[in-house]
Design goal:
- The chain is mainly alpha-helical.
- The protein contains three helices and no strands.
- It is elongated, with a radius of gyration of 22 Å.
Length: 103
């Protein structure tokens, strides 16, 4: 590759990496702030309170206009499962990067 083409290509890689790092940094800030919420809904899902709330919802004892996506096991499970998958993915990225740096 000629010098000018190499520099242009490297500039493209830098721009792509810079945008990705900024986006991930912003997302990680939000994700870090959400950790307490994830723990709270995880605890709620396995609690007696969730079971009572779910039963009352199924029996029609809650207001019809009440948002209750939190009573959908799938809704909570999906966000918790995705969070666990993201945590594993981040660990793998870090482990791979550390291995490369130690070579």
């Amino acid at each position: 590759m000629e010098q000018i083409e190499r520099i242009k290509t490297m500039e493209e890689h830098l721009n792509k990496a810079t945008a990705a790092v900024k986006a991930l940094n912003d997302a990680l800030d939000l994700y870090t702030e959400a950790q307490e919420s994830l723990e709270i809904i995880d605890d709620y899902l396995v609690s007696d309170e969730w079971e009572k709330d779910f039963a009352d919802s199924e029996a029609g004892r809650l207001p019809s206009d009440l948002k209750c996506g939190v009573l959908s096991e799938d809704g909570i499970w999906d966000v918790l499962d995705t969070s666990r998958e993201l945590n594993c993915q981040m660990l793998e990225i870090v482990a791979t990067r550390m291995r490369r740096e130690n070579e």
